[in-house]
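Quick one:
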Amino acid sequence: MRGSKLYVGNLTYSATQDQLMELFSKHGSVKEIKLIEDKGFAFVEMSTPEEADKAKEALNGQNFLGRTMKIDEARPRTNNREGGGGGYNNRERNYNRY
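Output:
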């Protein structure tokens, strides 16, 4: 694993940051937890890539609060603000043609 940040999916909506902290701290030092409320996932950053790998190996596929967790290395966020869609800019371009 190259990074120390993990994506933790398939969480029950009732999971808390404290519960995740308790679970992941058994596998290393937790730097930060970002629980995305009402979405069923979180990002857990461990202190080192080695600790993140250890936590992933130990917890991926394990039951946590009645759900089977899916854990993987978090991917960098991409900027989706460019292009796409049928928004105002597309209509404006069509009007300018005439």
